[in-house]
Amino acid sequence: SNIVRMSSGIQTKPKTAVEKSKTSASASSPEPAVKPQSKPSDKLNPKTIDPFGAYSQPPSAFAATYAKGGIPCRLVHGSVKHRLQWECLPETVPFDPLLVTFGEGLRETKHPYTFVSKEGFKELLTVEGATEKTIPLLPRLIPALKAALADSDDEVFGRGLDALVQLSAVVGPALNDHLKHLLTNLSRRLMDKKFRDKITVALQKLEQYGGKATVAIIKSKIPTYCSI
């Protein structure tokens, strides 16, 4: 054996007794494979997270319409204040379906959709003849406002509340038939101190624009309301 090792040029180190015992133990009784537990850092492993996952989600209806050029206005960044630039006069824009689209966009949380939807809704309601154009759309506008008022995001709720007051100022008593569907969410938010005063002012505006019949509707959902 010495001659073979010398001729091949390979020198083997004899195993110690400890190494022999380990080898024999592992061969006689193999241990079952244990699956390693996942670590918190594994969540950050780029192999398990798709960096493009956020972009694979389908855009909202408003964002999709905006991307296709279906919104005839764009955000103009000013040094002090932002504004909308319309491709044509707002008076010439068909309210159906644009006003409804703006209403649905009130739930957006990304820029520039948040500003475009809020400001577009407001500016459309200020054009001449807005009352006659808006009243037929109330059955489709109310679900959009209800969704905004029910949203857990404070900014979305605030935009929905402002839009409700703006809508009431335009359609007046015509809103009374739909008001009950919106007051439940206002009643819940009254428990929040940071919205209590703003909601109270909004209810007073609804009474002002809706007339005496509005008071009974409000009290049916918010008994603590005090008429102005």
From TrEMBL:
Transmembrane regions listed in the UniProt entry: none
Alphabetized InterPro entries for the sequence: ARM-like, ARM-type_fold, Parkin_co-regulated_protein
Gene3D superfamilies listed in its UniProt record: Leucine-rich Repeat Variant
Biased composition (Polar residues): 1-14
Chain segments carrying region Disordered: 1-50
Designated name of the protein: PACRG-like
Organism this protein belongs to: Buceros rhinoceros silvestris
